[in-house]
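URGENT: need a sanity check before tomorrow's submission.

F., can you look over the L-rhamnose mutarotase record below? I want to be sure the sequence and structure line up before it goes out.
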Amino acid sequence: MKRYCLALDLKDDEALIAEYEYWHRAENGWPEVRQSIIDAHITAMEIYRTGNRLFMIMETTDDYSPDAKAAMDGTNSKVQEWEQLMWKFQQPLPWAKPGEKWVLMNKIFEL
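Structure tokens as predicted:
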């Protein structure tokens, strides 16, 4: 099992943040997007928010590949539609590379 922790900012607008949370409730998520996550060998995913900053924790099988996931997403029209919708609410972290949304975090402590 692998664990990935990623960060991303939302636009600092209460109405947009509320709508973003609406889309992430279980009953409002898109089944095709959920299936694409499962198909990529992601076994668990959680997103946490503080203010307008998001933290995503993903657990994956050992054969998960971020590059393979990106390639799969690039050919999935429903995932692309979802990403377009989500970009309405999201903004890159100041240190994100061009075109990068979620930024991989480095673990600096473990108990």
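My own read: The chain has one domain: 2-104. Residues 5 and 108 are 12 Å apart (CA to CA). If you see anything odd, call me.
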